[in-house]
Specification:
The chain has 551 residues and is of the alpha+beta class. It folds into 3 domains: 148 residues, Neutral Protease, domain 2 (Orthogonal Bundle), CATH 1.10.390; 191 residues, Sandwich (Immunoglobulin-like); 85 residues, Aminopeptidase N, middle-beta domain (Immunoglobulin-like), CATH 2.60.40. An 8-stranded mixed β-sheet has the order 5-4-8-2-1-11-14-13, with no helix packed on it. The chain has a 5-stranded mixed β-sheet with strand order 16-17-18-20-19. A 4-stranded antiparallel β-sheet has the order 9-10-15-12, with no helix packed on it. A hairpin with a 2-residue loop joins strand 4 and strand 5. Helix 4 crosses helix 5 and helix 5 crosses helix 7. The radius of gyration is 26 Å and the shape is elongated. The relative contact order is 0.10. Bound molecules: zinc ion. The site of zinc ion has 7 residues, from helix 4 and helix 5.
Length: 551
């Protein structure tokens, strides 16, 4: 998703987390209680929405397969009734076929007794009947034009406010939404539209089926009055714009930009995973939220001036990374946000040229350095706090993006894109961790990358490089010092840019940093006018003082 500029505070890490990182070990998995004996195949949510009430009634059919023998319980996340009884969900019945199942609903978890113990490979459908007023997750209320709308806004673990699910990205599944709503409203949801039926009392049933496994945080609906346009097709998938009717003309104009990133990423990474892509003006709390095949953008996204191209590129990039290849653990959120951040830079590179990408990377580098000053114990892979309030950080976005940029430099363009594409195809519509990405990159590059990943992904911080240069008798001497306060000494290539002609691009000499203090000599037939470090913006470093040493 795209963080709003204001309103999101990013905290530090707990003591246990700091200790783990001090040992240099990859961070432990997040603390969500998993159910290894159960794999959800599909959710079918039947939900009735009415005007004039915030209450919903729902039925969830949960099709699951047992992965081990003897599983007796199913646990579902569902926020229960609040103390004052005004919000929350109440479960009225749980069944499996004709059989009624015993359950409890405490501490926002529905614990269901499955009856006769199952064998591995058995399938079962569990049906949960429930109703209530969602306190969050399904945003109900007027849009900026005062019209009634309903929007799911599930990230990261807010599906449980209105959908009984295993609400964690490790268990992806197909889903179907069967929505009954006043007939004046249109409905958008993940996947293909498979049914619209007029019902009595001016109601309509709309059914969408997402056959591709997705995360619960992507299982959303948008319901209200919309203007809808199909702007084109990418590999057979229609690309649609959904905007508020009173913003039809500027909205359609702005949203047509979506074709460009769809085409670029399909070509660069691999085939798009879903049946369609709807870009939807919505009430999401985020700047944009990448729900699989159904991206929700903030209400203010429509300007009529095409000013949100980067936002579209970011959310569309998530369809490949985040949605199709999903981190199986919140600690690895950078596999979603770092990829979307870097792919937006790549979109800028292809669309506007390298200078635009470099400007973005330099901005990001400044943010990473500032963030590190306030959060010196936090790395790209960082243990998620229980409230998940630290997963969307400058580390998962900008530093994750910068890591990919440096990896691209290390292995070269061709191998980098082969690796990105291979990683996508191997984990498409599934899950992955950082070590899976490392493995793919090692395979395609033929290089061991353990130290590179450890230094940049699992270790907080970046090098602070300072030094000086002199020139005498045809020899340029460059003295460099790694001045970071930590014990880490970085091993990295560094470009030394030698300016011998005003106005011309610097000549680049690549040196390898392996020690805290190093001196490099370079033969030059002409005295340089200036010497600069990293002229082409390839290294995530904090630049210390670097100048000609006074003679
Ligand atoms: Zn994002």
């Amino acid at each position: 998703m795209f963080r709003r500029l204001i309103g999101r505070f990013v905290g530090g890490v707990g003591i246990a987390a700091v200790m783990l990182m001090a040992l240099g070990a990859p961070a432990a998995a997040d603390t969500y209680t998993r159910q290894p004996g159960i794999d959800v195949q599909q959710y079918i949510f039947r939900i009735e929405l009415k005007d004039g009430t915030r209450a919903i009634s729902g039925q969830a059919d949960i099709d699951l397969v047992f992965k081990t023998d003897g599983v007796a319980e199913l646990l579902l996340d569902l926020i229960g009734a609040s103390a004052d009884g005004k919000t929350g969900m109440t479960v009225s019945a749980v069944t499996s076929g004709a059989q009624t199942l015993a359950f409890t609903h405490e501490h926002n978890r529905v614990r269901i007794q499955l009856g006769p113990a199952a064998k591995a490979g058995d399938r079962r459908r569990v049906t949960v009947q429930y109703s209530g007023v969602p306190a969050d997750g399904l945003l109900i209320g007027p849009n900026k034009h005062g019209e009634p709308v309903f929007f799911g806004d599930n990230f990261p673990d807010r599906a449980r406010y209105w959908l009984p699910t295993i609400d964690h990205p490790y268990d992806k599944s197909a889903c179907e939404f069967v929505i009954t709503a006043p007939e004046a409203y249109q409905v958008v949801a993940p996947g293909a539209l498979v049914e619209t039926t007029s019902l009595a009392e001016n109601r309509r049933l709309t059914r969408y089926r997402e056959a591709v496994p997705i995360t619960t945080y992507c299982m959303v609906i948008g319901v209200g009055r919309f203007a809808v346009e199909t702007i084109g097709y990418v590999h057979g998938a229609p690309i649609q714009s959904w905007v508020y009717p009173s913003e039809r003309d500027p909205g359609f104009a702005d949203f047509r930009i979506a074709l460009k990133p769809m085409e670029l990423f399909s070509w660069r990474i691999g085939p798009y995973a879903y049946e369609k892509l709807a870009n939807v003006q919505s009430k999401t709390r985020y700047g944009g939220m990448e729900n699989a095949s159904t991206i929700f953008y903030r209400e203010g996204v429509v300007t009529g001036k095409g000013t949100n191209e980067g936002l579209f590129a970011h959310e569309i990039a998530h369809q490949w990374f985040g949605d199709s290849v999903t981190e199986s653990d919140w600690d690895h959120t950078w596999l979603s946000e770092g990829f979307a951040t870097y792919l937006t830079h790549v979109y800028n590179e292809y669309t506007f040229g390298r200078d635009t990408m470099v400007r973005g990377l330099r901005r990001d580098r400044e943010s990473v350095i500032r963030y590190y000053d306030r959060n010196p114990k936090s790395a790209i892979v960082t243990p998620a706090t229980e409230k998940l309030d630290n997963i969307l950080s400058t580390n998962s976005y900008q530093k994750g993006g910068w890591f990919l940029h440096m990896l691209r430099r290390l292995v070269g363009d061709e191998v980098f894109w082969k690796g990105i594409s291979t990683f996508y195809m191997r984990h498409r519509n599934g899950n992955a961790l950082t070590e899976d990405f490392q493995r793919v990159m090692e395979e395609v590059s033929g290089k061991p990358l353990q130290a590179f990943f450890r230094q940049w992904v699992y270790t907080p911080g970046q090098p602070v490089i300072k030094g000086s240069w002199t020139y005498a008798a045809g020899v340029l001497t460059v003295e460099l010092h790694q001045a970071q306060a930590t014990d880490t000494v970085y091993t990295t290539a560094l470009d030394i840019g030698i300016v011998t002609d005003r106005g011309a691009a610097p000549k680049v000499e690549v040196v390898q940093l392996v020690q805290r203090d190093q001196t490099f000599t370079i033969s030059l037939d002409k005295e340089p006018l200036d010497v600069v470090l990293d002229p082409n913006t390839w290294l995530l470093m904090q630049a210390g003082e670097f100048a000609r040493k006074p003679r």
